[in-house]
Amino acid sequence: MPALPPSVPLSWYLTLSLILFVLGIAGFLFRRNIITVFMSIELMLNAVNLSFITFSYKLKQVDGHIFAFFVMVVAAAEAAVGLAIILTVFKNRQTLEIDELSSLKN
Amino acid sequence: MLQLWLIPLLPLAGFAVNGLLGRRLSKTAINAVAVGSVLLSFLWVLKTLSTLGVFGGGNPLEQAYTEHYYTWIQSGMLNIGVDLAIDRLTAVMLMIVTGVGFLIHVYAVGYMAHEGGYYRFFAYLNLFMFFMLVLVLAANFLLLFVGWEGVGLCSYLLIGFYFTERFATDAGNKAFIVNRIGDFGFSLAVFLIAMHFGSLDFATVFGKVQGMPVESSAGWMTAIALLLFVGATGKSAQIPLYVWLPDAMAGPTPVSALIHAATMVTAGVYMVTRSSAIFLHAHGALEVVAIIGLATAFFAATIGLAQTDIKKVYAYSTVSQLGYMFLGLGTGAFSAGIFHVMTHAFFKALLFLGAGSVIHAMSGEQDLRKMGGLRKYTPITFWTLLCASVAIAGVPPFSGYHSKDAILASAYEYAPWMYWVGVFTAGMTAFYVFRAFFLAFFGEPRWEAAAQAAHGPDAHGHDDPGHGHGAPHESPPSMWIPLAVLAVLSLIGGYINVPKWLEPMFKVAEEAPGIPWTALVSVAAGLIGIALAAWFYLIAPAIPEELARSFSTPYRWIYNKYFVDEFYDSLVVEPMIDGSRSLLWRVFDAAGIDGIVNGTGKTARNLGGILKRMQSGSIRSYAAWVVLGSILVIVAITMAGGVR
Question: Where in the sequence is the domain holding B179, given as residue range(s)?
Answer without folding.
Answer: 6-559
